[in-house]
Amino acid sequence: MIASNSPYGGSGSPHASAHASPASTPQAAPAGMMMTASDFEATLSLYRSKAKKSNDPELLLEFARFLMQVAVAQDADKAQAYRREAYKMCKKAASTGHDEAQFLLAECYETGAYSDKNKPDYGKAFSLYSIAAKHSHPEAAYRAAVYYENGRGTSKSPPRALQFYQKAAALGHPGAMYRIGMAELHGELGMVVNPRNGTKWLKMAAAAATPEHPEALYELALLHETGIDHVVFVDYEYSVKLLREAAQLGHVMSMYRLGSYYEHGNHVAKSPQTSFSYFKAAAERGHPDSMFGVASWYLTGYSEAGVPQSDDQAFEWMKRAAESGLVKAFFALGYFYEEGIGTPGDPKLALEWYQRALAKGDKRAGPKISALKQVVAGSATMATLGRRRAQPAPPETENERERIRKARTGEDACVIM
Question: What whole-number distance in Å separates Cα of residue 408 and Cα of residue 417?
Answer without folding.
Answer: 9
